[in-house]
Amino acid sequence: MHMPEEQLRISVLQADLHWENPEANRAMFEEMIWQLETPTDVIVLPEMFTTGFSMSPEKLAEPMNLHTQKWMQQMAAQTHAAVCGSYIVQENGKYYNRFLWMQPNGKHLHYDKKHLFGMAGETNRYTAGTEPLVIEWHGWRICPMICYDLRFPVWSRLRAELHYDLLIYVASWPAPRVHAWSTLLKARAIENQAYCVGVNRIGTDGYGHYYTGESAVIDYTGHELFYAKEVSAKATVTLDKQQLNKFRQSFPFQNDADRFRLLP
Fold it and tell me: Which active-site residues does the annotation give?
């Protein structure tokens, strides 16, 4: 049973991914999902959760409506929660780092990563998305983003055409730059007066990059409601929209925000 609409239960799954092994990762996350101790409304998996952050899409990409999408649909139906995370999708001859939002009834939405990480060669292997997404779920407005998007605050800036209550960032953010990850998650929450959830991975990938996780759930004032470093972790946190709206009304900073439009 879902809670009252002013509350949203969100579950964070942080894990060490099996390198380029979709079957093993789906099995691992399935076990973690069934180990969640309380009912939930949203289950969030990391970036490229079936493979790790791989630059080999030609051997790993799936078309839509295949193994991973069907697995997410099964998990959503069985848990009565939305299941989300990004994986490698092939569509019309192009590869995308695609965030898929799957609901229990099979309805799904997606967001393709806008800011591709050129330093790792992602810009050469994948096609960038062009449109942000806002999802309506249990009376909440949710905006998903992917990893490197976090460094570009204009893209996620709360505004009339991009109004939300919750930001979700799924990531493969390596240890040498993880201070930026933790700092910018708080900044996005504070500047947009919104809840912010960041889900990162742990362990070492096939390129030798090490990840400390540091997944977090952050409230609209920038304070952590959940944080986990260097361990496999699963946690469910309840967010309160009534409190969020009360804070926004008490401190209406958005009324003084700059007006702008994004150029194509």
Answer: 47, 113, 147
